[in-house]
Amino acid sequence: MDSMKVEWSSRYACDAAAVKQHVEAKGGVYRLQHMDSDGKYRTFYVGIAEDLSDRIPDHFTDSEPNPCVKGIINQGNNGFRFIYIGNDATRQGIERYLYDKIPNLCNDQRPEADPIEVNY
Hints:
CATH superfamily: GIY-YIG endonuclease
Distance between the termini: 16 Å
């Protein structure tokens, strides 16, 4: 399995204003996170996009189609982190790795790419 070290962004609040302020219109991988009762953030969804600034805020709207994501977002105490990755195959590989390694994700489809290991 391929492996790469990446530098995730800081964690930002799950709202459109934070995306507008901190996220560029570039391709990448993102993680939605929720603060558990122990005060630690747990990733509950991983995704990829050709334009992170356009895709991430889709999750914060009433039209979010994934009931698991919508339910957790509505609870509050959420954040997101991201990395810019220009190559689509690399984005897909990272998404697959995270999907395989992080338990209890809201993702409803297993990515088909070969996994690329990253720190998270």
